[in-house]
Design brief:
mainly alpha
């Protein structure tokens, strides 16, 4: 990845982390596996609601 893409990715990861810690009890996201599962659930839920043209 070039530096610009890397910086964008890091910014998005930080934003997702901030949202998770704001909305989800810390005991539910103790490991990378917990975080991965939570993010996956959120993405799937939102993708299912998207309307594609």
């Amino acid at each position: 990845m070039n530096q610009s893409v890397d910086e964008q990715l890091l910014a998005h990861i930080k934003a997702i982390a901030a949202l998770l810690y704001k909305e989800i009890p810390p005991e539910q996201i103790q490991s990378l596996e917990d975080i991965e599962e939570m993010v996956r659930q959120q993405v799937i839920e939102r993708v299912r609601n998207w309307k594609f043209l």
